[in-house]
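User: Let's play a game. I give you a shape written as tokens, and you guess the letters that built it. Ready? Here's round one.
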């Protein structure tokens, strides 16, 4: 989501006559797009700001703007703490930065400066093409769920869906510029459309994209088990472009822990969704997210998570250790009572389960052919991804191929993180 926001802002700045600089020292304006999901991400933003402060104090003429999840509805405290920051902008609220850009007298040449000041700052239909063959498309902003540990709804606000027309306009614009794959984004992407007239759904978007020439693959994330309807799962199964690749965070395998997280579903509901997916798409790739060490997580609750992960056999498990986020319910009302060493130990146990399940699943395709969307080609090496999102390094095997093409790659070796192979000449397809 942040990558998409950064690109959107850069499109807006380009429309005002700005260009991307090679490095910070050559810049008039530096924008830091921040993430607050975990303390570590925020710490990185703080240390970057510290470096910029020193550069500014040593005479470098730069303006600094901070955008993204670190910026809440009130910026007074932030402004006091970081007086050298010139503009603050909440997620998707690009105006303060565009205003700052307009006010920097020495930056764009005079004519552009004058022009920019009379332009409408609405950049909803101003786009930038990302590098490569894939693009992120936010379809619904914000989140209405309020999980106790999560800062996102406090920073990104309530759910707001973009219109189908707006989304298709952007995807067509990207398709005309050789983008081959789009990933539809939402904090809970299946919530798309409930706030719009006629209530379109994610399945509506899938159907519309089916008709856009040039787009070869569609992905979507992140899923929320309760919003993932049978209709959406079936539409993935029926679509030729939508990859059978699901990112469904379970967060814990314990119903009591899920209750304290206020996730709004039980383990059984989650398993039911996985079963539905696997019934319709036996080879679907399923990834999940897990948080360990949440307030009060007992050893037996953690063990329930381990049991669930081993039972479901996920393609990918993203794991994080809990860190309190100021302002959340968990931070205000619950003790961060799991010692650091135990969080670390639990994290490592989950990482080991991921390495084993992912390694086992990937090894099953050795000797088979998989469909790969070519992302890069350098010398005699290509890189791309399977429909399930696994990275594939391959040799073109004498074939003339280009980035953006779909090719069949015969897999010769596998690890938990990637596959290796060469472009194949015959067809016997495996789905990963
Ligand atoms: Fe945060 Fe829960 Fe919303 Fe996900 S569903 S963004 S974890 S509040």
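Assistant: Ready! My guess for every position:
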């Amino acid at each position: 989501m942040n990558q998409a926001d950064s690109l959107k802002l850069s499109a807006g700045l380009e429309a005002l006559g700005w260009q991307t600089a090679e490095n910070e020292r050559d810049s008039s304006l530096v924008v830091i797009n921040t993430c607050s999901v975990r303390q570590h991400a925020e710490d990185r933003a703080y240390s970057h700001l510290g470096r910029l402060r020193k550069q500014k104090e040593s005479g470098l003429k730069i303006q600094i703007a901070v955008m993204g999840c670190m910026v809440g509805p009130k910026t007074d405290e932030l402004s006091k703490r970081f007086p050298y920051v010139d503009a603050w902008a909440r997620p998707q609220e690009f105006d303060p930065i565009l205003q700052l850009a307009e006010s920097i007298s020495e930056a764009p040449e005079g004519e552009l400066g004058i022009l920019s000041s009379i332009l409408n700052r609405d950049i909803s239909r101003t786009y930038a093409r990302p590098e490569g063959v894939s693009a992120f498309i936010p379809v619904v902003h914000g989140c209405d769920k309020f999980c106790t540990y999560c800062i996102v709804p406090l920073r990104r606000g309530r759910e707001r869906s973009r219109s189908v027309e707006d989304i298709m306009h952007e995807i067509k614009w990207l398709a005309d510029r050789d983008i081959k794959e789009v990933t539809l984004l939402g904090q809970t992407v299946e919530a798309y459309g409930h706030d719009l007239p006629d209530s379109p759904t994610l399945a509506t978007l899938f159907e519309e994209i089916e008709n856009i020439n040039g787009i070869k693959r569609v992905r979507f994330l992140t899923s929320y088990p309760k919003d993932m309807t049978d209709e959406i799962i079936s539409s993935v199964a029926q679509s030729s472009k939508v990859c059978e690749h699901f990112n469904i965070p379970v967060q814990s395998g314990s119903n009591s822990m899920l209750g304290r997280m206020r996730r709004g579903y039980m383990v059984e509901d989650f398993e039911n969704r996985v079963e539905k997916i696997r019934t319709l798409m036996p080879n679907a790739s399923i990834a999940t997210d897990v948080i360990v060490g949440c307030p009060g997580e007992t050893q037996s609750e953690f063990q329930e998570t381990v049991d669930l992960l081993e039972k479901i056999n996920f393609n990918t498990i993203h794991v994080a250790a809990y860190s309190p986020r100021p302002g959340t319910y968990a931070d205000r009302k619950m003790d961060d009572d799991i010692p650091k060493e135990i969080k670390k130990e639990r994290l490592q146990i989950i990482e080991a389960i991921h390495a084993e399940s992912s390694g086992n699943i990937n090894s099953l395709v050795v000797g088979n052919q998989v469909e790969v969307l070519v992302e890069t080609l350098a010398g005699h090496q290509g890189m791309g991804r399977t429909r399930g999102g696994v990275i594939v390094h391959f040799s073109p095997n004498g074939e003339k191929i280009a980035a953006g093409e779909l090719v069949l790659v015969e897999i010769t070796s596998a690890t938990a993180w990637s596959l290796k192979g060469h472009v194949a000449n015959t067809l016997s397809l495996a789905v990963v």
